[in-house]
Fold each of these.
Amino acid sequence: RALQLKPDDAEAHNILGFALVKQGRWPEAILHYERALQLKPDLTVAHANLGKALAQQGQWAEAILHYERALRINPDDAGVFFNLGNALAQQGRWPAAIQNYERALQLQPDSAEAGCNLAWLLATCRDAPFRNPAEALRRAQRACDLTHSRNPVVLDTMAAAQAAGGDFVQAVATAKEALALATAGGKERLAREIERRLALYQAGQ
């Protein structure tokens, strides 16, 4: 209704895009975010929202561009650094992903999500030079502390960090805790993934 009255209201296009995302209507949301930015190119939140919508559609390169534009306008947005780290990790750009996760944590030290994702990358990166089991364990422990060890994703990450450091006995125990929480929470896909990793830890891999 607002856009019927004022079709060139950039903020209204952005807010409508956000509402459409909540309904899972991603392509429509993207169109409204893009329109918001045509009308107001420096609307930081629209760049950030468009980046998230594009990332959800697997358009990682385009998402990265919009995250970077958002950060040029507002260089202190921890959430955008975190999302940029995720997108870069999806593209295998490990050093840049690590750098952006670290920046997110500098700005928001109590972000369990950013700490968890950084720990996962450092524990499991397929390129050995970027793995750092000791740092992964430290970051995972911090995330566990912040979530009181009640988040199955965080515990799964902790198990991966322990395994990366060669402590398979503890990794098995932690993975079992993660599996129990995932199962109790009805997170079937996560539970299956944890079961697969648990089998590897039990085999010392």
Note: Residues 10 and 40 are 6 Å apart (CA to CA).
Amino acid sequence: LVRCYHRFRYQVLKTVRFSRLAFYQLGADDYLWHQFNQIARGNESGLLEEWRPNRGGRTYDRKGIPLPGRVPWLSLHDASRQFQNRAIRGGWATRGLVIRRWSAMLGGEPVAPHASVFRTDSAGVASANVELSPPPGIEVLRAGDFVEAEVELLIVPMLAEDYYGPNSNLRVSLE
């Protein structure tokens, strides 16, 4: 079980217009062979939505998805153990992102976290990533704008047989 905590702060020094902006990515455009069948979003109250993403094509599948609550999260799960028509042996994972702390001012207004799903193609493998992104309607950052956050990246074994660690409770929950 991998848990990484990342803290970042982006401080805008001068006005900049953008066509695409990701404050944080779960997966990368050109380095992502992870294929999964479901994305979910939720918060401290539980699941808010689950859907099947479209993959491949280097375009957005969904943009400006609100992430409400004190502890919003995203999950890329129901992973496929197939890679370029070959079965993968060994560990394959479910990936998660939890927003532990968020503070942002964009366009002079406080903004809550939002996500987007970008369809990727890497080495011939069509997939998708999740990005923390600006809310809809923001296409310019102005001097004084900022985003400051702490996120938790989770990589959880997909199957109990893939887990080789000492945590018996985790093994039971995977089963």
Note: The longest helix spans residues 168-174.
Amino acid sequence: LEIATTAINRFRVSIQQLYKQIRESNSRYSLTYFQLQDQVRALHLVPAATQLQPLARLVRDVALDLGKKVDFTIMGGDIEIDRPILEGIKDPLMHLLRNAIDHGIESPQERLVQGKSEIGHLKIEVNRADDRILMTISDDGAGINTDQVIKHAIKKKILTHSEILALNKAEIIDLIFRPGFSSKDMITDISGRGVGLDIVLTNLRNLKGHIKVDTIEGKGTVFVLSLPLTLSTDHGLIVRVS
């Protein structure tokens, strides 16, 4: 028994030493893994301005085609966003900007009559909130006319008149994202190019994002796009013994 006890004690000490070595190695490997993970994520992140700055030319060309004067501003362009998200948001942004210039911002003459500056203001602002990116597109144009939205929703048979009566203002405005809402009266070749804002919503959902709209008739409209900071995923294999 004494011999066995001595052997067991030696074995216990060896096991403890081995466990300590494994634990130290595991800590080093974990630290290295997390450092590598951060570096890989950093490689995917690029400043938002890389995708937003080229949109200035789009705004200038569309405004010129429509005979409107637009001052375009980008704020928060230094905030870094996952490259796939920036690439995926390009088309929705272009659609929203065209729509803002075509339907939102009035002509210089109309703006002067309404007591506004003849130059319309269009702004994209990027902010980071925890693990989300908030991209706000705002204009000081005519806003969204809810009566027109109701009229076209009924005309396109998206909802019946009785169903629309049960909606509040926010729910009525959200109808612009319904498939089939595009209309020649409200969506022109400049803004819609034959498709409606439902394409914007679909693209955002593919990016795990969502959109909110706030509008005041005669004052302007604000679209707030909420997006994840990154779409990158890490693939791993966990092995557990005993």
Note: The first helix runs from residue 2 to 44.
